[in-house]
Amino acid sequence: MKKTRTVPSALPIYLCAAVWLIFGLIFPIYKLGPLLICAALSVGAYFLGRKLFPGRQEEYEAAPDSGDAEVNRQIMEGREEMKRLREANVALTDPGITERLDRMEHAAGKIFESLEKNPRQAMEVRKFMNYYLPVSVKLLDQYRTLEGTGLDTDNITKSKAAVENSLDMIAAAFEKQVDNLYRNTHLDITTDIQVLETMMASEGLVSSGASMGATANR
Q: What is the DSSP letter of 63?
């Protein structure tokens, strides 16, 4: 799962050093009085720099923490496959291919996030993790190898076309896998709404006819 952290700026340290340099050129900091003043000014410059230049925010992949060691291992292996997918996405410049690889990458990331939150889904995504994702990445590696030849021979052209034609199917399958993981969430929401409507109707807070009609429309 991606998290955000703050990377401190080096500018506050440079400001602190600049105070010592400039002050030392003007005043005899080898004496105790000027030395203490310079130290105080440098500390002030450092904290002022921290306020003016707080650093930058960056995203990073935190180690998976599903509570299940085996699931964590699967997620880490999946992330390694994702790195190869991302490398292929960067290396291939065709906009049509990039768009489909973006879809695959996004869907795979959502699968890992869902699995980390709900490790019981491991069985549901076993084929995706152990076969669909690695084989898809293997196809892209082979495509990059074919691209690297710089040739348009019959077999190379046919092989590249076969991979290109499969990308829509693969991206759609990845997205369908994400949708399947949220099947139970949909059922829970529907059930909660039905129970809520029934209780409200029994208290006379809503019309029972309107409540039943709204439920039927779903």
A: P
Q: What is the DSSP letter of 152?
A: -
- What helix, strand, coil percent values describe the chain, rounded to 5? 80, 5, 15
Sign of CA dihedral 184, 62, 135, 154: positive
For residues 46 and 15, is the Cβ–Cβ distance under 8 A? yes
Count of helices and strands (H, E) across the chain: 9, 2
Q: How far is CA 50 from the centre of its chain?
A: 29
Q: What residue ranges in 35-104 does DSSP mark as E strands?
A: 56-61
Residues in the chain, how many?
218
88 in Cβ contact with 95 (< 8 Å): no
User: Per DSSP, what are the bridge partners of residue 58?
Assistant: 5
In tens, the pLDDT along 159-175 reads 999 999 999 999 999 99
pLDDT one-digit tens code per residue, 22-77: 998 999 988 899 899 999 999 999 999 888 888 887 776 778 899 999 999 999 99
Residues 94, 99, 104, CA angle at the centre, nearest 5°? 125
Question: What is the three-class DSSP state of 5?
Answer: strand
Count of Cβ atoms closer than 10 Å to residue 9 Cβ = 15
Q: Which H helix or E strand runs over 139?
A: helix 133-149
Closest CA to 104 of 63, 73, 139: 139
Domain map of the chain by residue range?
2-58, 64-181, 188-217
